[in-house]
Design goal:
Number of strands: 3
Largest sheet: 3 strands, antiparallel
Structural class: alpha+beta
Strand order of the largest sheet: 1-2-3
Number of helices: 1
Shape: elongated
Order of helices and strands: EEEH
Distance between the termini: 74 Å
Strand content: 5-15%
Length: 83
C-alpha cells in the first residue's frame, strides 16, 4: 500500500533538511533537494518498518502543502535630513 506524505524542506547554509509534519521524529538532511527527498523516502520506509515491529500504528497522512503568493511592499522612501 502506498501513501503520500507532505514533507517540509528547509535550506541551510551548507545543506537541506526535511521533516514530515505527520511523522514526528522522522528527519533527514542532504546536499541537494533531490537527494533530501530521496533520503526522506528511505527514512520514512525505515521509520515505518520500526513502527510495525514495535506494534505501533502508522500515522495517516493528513498535512497538506500549498504555496501562497503575496505582494511585498517596497521600502519607504526616506527624506533627506533637514538643516
Amino acid at each position: 500500500m502506498k501513501r503520500k506524505y507532505a514533507i517540509i524542506i528547509e535550506s541551510g547554509p551548507n545543506n537541506y533538511s526535511a521533516y514530515v509534519p505527520d511523522v514526528p521524529g522522522c528527519i533527514t538532511t542532504g546536499r541537494t533537494v533531490a537527494e533530501t527527498v530521496e533520503l526522506m523516502r528511505e527514512a520514512l520506509e525505515f521509520h515505518f518498518e520500526g513502527m510495525r515491529e514495535d506494534g505501533d500504528a502508522i500515522p495517516e497522512p493528513t498535512s497538506l502543502c500549498e504555496y501562497v503568493e503575496v505582494e511585498i511592499p517596497e521600502p519607504a522612501a526616506t527624506e533627506p535630513p533637514r538643516r
